[in-house]
Amino acid sequence: MNKINAKTKEFLFRDSPPHPLEIINSKGSYLVEKNGKKYLDFMMGWCVGNVGWKREDILKSIKKFKGPEYVSPTYIYRRWEHLAEKIVNILPKRNGTCFRATGGTEANEIALKMSRAYNKRKKFLAFKEAYHGQSIACLSLVKIPQHEAHFGKFSKDYIQIYAKDWRKTTEEAENLIKKRDISAFISEPIICNLGVIVPPQDFFDAVIEACKETDTLFICDEVATGFGRTGKWFGFEHYGLEPDIITIAKGFSSGYAAIGATIAKPNIAESMRFEFSNYSTFGWHPLSVEAAISNIDYIRKENLVDRANENGKYLIKRLSEFCEPEGKGLCIGFDEKREGTETRCLKDGLIISSLEGRVVLFPPLNVLKTEIDKAVEIIRRNI
Ligand SMILES: Cc1ncc(COP(=O)(O)O)c(C=O)c1O
After folding, report:
1. How many whole angstroms separate alpha carbon 237 and alpha carbon 50?
2. Going from the N-terminus, what domains does the chain have, and what CATH number goes with each?
3. How many Å lie between the centroid of ligand 1 and the Cα of residue 108?
4. C-alpha to C-alpha distance for 188 and 198, rounded to whole angstroms
5. Within 13 Å of residue 351, how many CA atoms lie on the same side as its CB?
6. Quick check: pTM over 0.90?
7. What is the pLDDT of residues 193-206, one digit of tens each?
């Protein structure tokens, strides 16, 4: 483990000291540190590396690409159309229109803009202290106290509900939506950013019904939960929901390149058909497009959605021997018993994350049973 050096301090800004590992390589479910030590990666960059590291199929598709280095957003480029069709074909209803983005924040910004353009309302409803990105709008959605303290008070157009006491929260959300002045409710289907919280079916049923009645849109943020992470292609499928807008990034390329997208029901996408409604210089860069196409093919070929489901059941069963895990597929969280679980696990060679009293685990979807067993023993020793 390395200490931050003077050069890093001088030229590269960090809001807090870096994670102590200096990573020089990766393979499968492991990251390799400078001194050669291998770490079992149960974070995968926070739901990024769904397919595991160093997958030759994806690396080859990027390396052998002979197309243009760059295509301007306004030009015709057939691989964009191919990728858009591929994404829409994954959706249960195979119905959607894709907007190109570079990552999750931008995908959510597009969703918020589109929602306002669609119903001409300004307000948004979201879970307090969840996470949808780093732009001012995305930070306003969730109102994390230190952000308001440093960036100034966020607009009152952004309203929050709490991911606890579900009966009260459901009632509150329904009442707010029924005022008919909220443009959209935005949420992850399973709230990774609050330590993996699985909202009850009744919550989504009631809130989405209220949205439908009032022409309020439901934006489902699948940036972390998408692409098999929860044991389904998308987390909303667990609830039988039909989001108006879906946002994706992270597992969309499994980290092999930077890419995001906003997928809207076609009639809602129409509200953006005016000049300069959206523009992304690097949205769907040709190399990122190849990575995303190849990533989707790989997930299908290796049957990773089903494997995430099976592996998740096994991991939850093993964790249940000593704690109370919550989650779906390989999107799992549980209460931390003693502070410092993350650091103690890291010393034992396992990368996990703890936040606000919760431990979260996001292993690769094709993690081996032996790797799960190894991780479980490390967690058991260190929890
Ligand atoms: C649920 C969710 N939405 C949006 C984002 C923002 O994505 P990006 O960092 O690609 O802008 C994240 C990132 O962690 C996320 O977890």
Report:
1. 18
2. 6-55+303-382 (3.90.1150.10), 60-301 (3.40.640.10)
3. 9
4. 10
5. 25
6. yes
7. 999 999 999 999 99
